[in-house]
Design brief:
Rossmann fold; 50% helix; 5-stranded parallel sheet; 4 domains; 12% strand; single chain; 14 strands; alpha/beta
């Protein structure tokens, strides 16, 4: 049986109640969650709409309405619905005719349980792909979100991020794993939580940071343990997989997992079963796996640090958050949001964001992304207000406030240069720049190196070379 079943309904239409009951119990026992039975074809037709998706098990021989008529009307009003016709031994010609009319497949009575399950799974997987394509096309044409309130906690006006929101609404209801990528501080945890909210899953959203967990702690945290599993196991304890039952399990920093932990996670995703430590009774995993990383996992898999087969499993759907420096229009928007949040929490007066401060903020690359911006705003508001924020960001960006004021008064000076004759050599120009940066920063090498766009160690080497040349 495949490791994950799309969350789409299965409709069983047959006038034989014993057969519908048998199909119902078989499918439920194999993990199909939404199975519905009907005995009158006229009643089921009113349930379907153009966007209805799933699988219909359709008996061809019914007294009230023929199966072929039901098939035709379903194909007309609900093109995403996949129909599997159920026929008797002597109805092979009719079954073939139904396939030509648009049925996905057919089953011959008596139906073998394994054949039933595999056929329904194939039909449902096909329906899930069709539904996903339909919704993507709809999103591209309309450009809107079905539930914009879900994404209110992610402050952005960037078109790429908003396109991610649209894609998330399409894949949210599916059961396959999702991989969220992006640099540290971009908000991968917020995106994962929004994906869970959009999914409509009834279970909880449970998250854990996998960085620094050794294999034993990882297994105990995820799977739990029974009493007596190890020396200190005085009571049984459920793991995060159990707590996230019917919901979403978020594994942050998955690129830091040890090889042994990667194997355990791979088996969990493949088999959808796990064993609490000390137990030989399997438990079923019903949580959707959402993983996140700030690493390029493709670059590490070939070096033995991340398993290729695990990457394939978790990378069914990928959401990539661009860094803050690549969406600078979001910086003033986020700053305004964090200013309001900080002033409310700290009970201080809210000052407006000046154009000069906004310019300073957008000139900085924010290696820590949104998290760094929030920390910067809160620190400044706690320490004295907007003037402190201006000074902090100017120091980080390597821009003196005085030089910024001069540039704003005379913008031409920022783009117009006077070149000496003859031109200095590259080495001489480098020495001039280092000297000027040290003068502007009053000898502070951290600030000077930031101005020059190099590390402090590189600046220190240049200074030593200059001094060595003078002696």
């Amino acid at each position: 049986m495949p490791d994950s079943i799309p969350h789409l309904p299965v409709y069983i239409l047959d006038d034989e109640q014993a057969l519908t009951r048998s199909f119902f119990l078989t499918l439920k026992s194999f993990g199909f969650q939404d199975v519905r039975t009907f005995h009158d074809g006229r009643k089921i037709l009113g349930l379907f709409s153009e966007r209805e998706s799933g699988v219909l098990l359709l008996d061809l021989s019914m007294p009230d309405i023929s199966g072929e008529e039901v098939l035709g009307r379903v194909r007309e009003c609900s093109p995403l619905m996949q129909v599997v016709v159920v026929t008797g031994i002597n109805e092979a010609d009719t079954a073939i005719r139904c396939i030509r009319a648009g049925a996905f497949d057919y089953l011959v009575k008596p139906v073998d349980a394994d054949r039933l399950v595999t056929t329904v799974f194939r039909a449902m997987s096909h329906a899930a792909v069709l539904e996903q394509n339909f919704r993507l096309r709809h999103k591209l044409l309309t450009g809107g979100l079905d539930r914009p309130e879900i994404f209110q906690g992610i402050i952005t006006q960037d078109a790429r991020v908003r396109a991610i929101f649209s894609y998330m609404e399409v894949v949210a209801s599916l059961s396959e794993p999702v991989l969220v990528t992006g640099e540290t501080g971009t908000g991968k945890d917020l995106l994962a939580a929004a994906l869970h909210e959009a999914s409509g899953r009834k279970g909880r959203f449970v998250g854990i940071n996998a960085a620094g967990l050794d294999d034993n702690v990882f297994a105990d945290t995820l799977f739990g343990h029974v009493k007596g599993a190890f020396t200190d196991a005085r009571e049984s304890r459920e793991g995060l997989v159990a707590r996230a039952a019917g919901g979403s399990l978020f594994l942050d920093e998955i690129g830091d997992l040890s090889p042994a932990s990667q194997v355990k996670l791979l088996k969990l995703i493949q088999d959808r079963v796990y064993y609490p430590l000390g137990s030989d009774t399997p438990r079923t995993c019903t949580a959707r796996i959402i993983a996140a990383t700030n690493r390029e996992l493709e670059a590490t898999e070939g070096h033995g640090r991340f398993r290729e087969d695990l990457l394939y499993r978790i990378n069914t759907y990928r959401l990539h958050l661009p860094p803050l420096r690549d969406r600078r229009d979001d910086i003033p928007l986020l700053t305004e949001f964090f200013l309001t949040e900080a002033c409310s929490e700290l009970n201080v007066n809210r000052e407006p964001l000046s154009p000069r401060t906004a310019e300073l903020l957008t000139s900085y690359r924010f290696p820590g992304n949104v998290r760094e911006l929030r920390s910067l705003v809160f620190s400044a508001m706690a320490g004295g207000g907007m003037a402190i924020l201006e000074q902090k960001i100017a120091d980080l960006a390597g821009i003196g406030l005085a030089s910024l004021e001069t540039t704003q008064r005379n913008p031409a000076r920022s783009t117009s240069w006077q070149y000496p004759e003859p031109l200095p050599t590259l080495q001489q120009a480098g020495e001039i720049l280092v000297e000027q940066a040290l003068r502007t920063s009053k000898g502070n090498q951290s600030k000077a190196s930031a101005m020059l766009g190099i590390t402090r160690q590189a600046l220190n080497k240049r200074i030593k070379k200059v001094k060595a040349g003078e002696t």
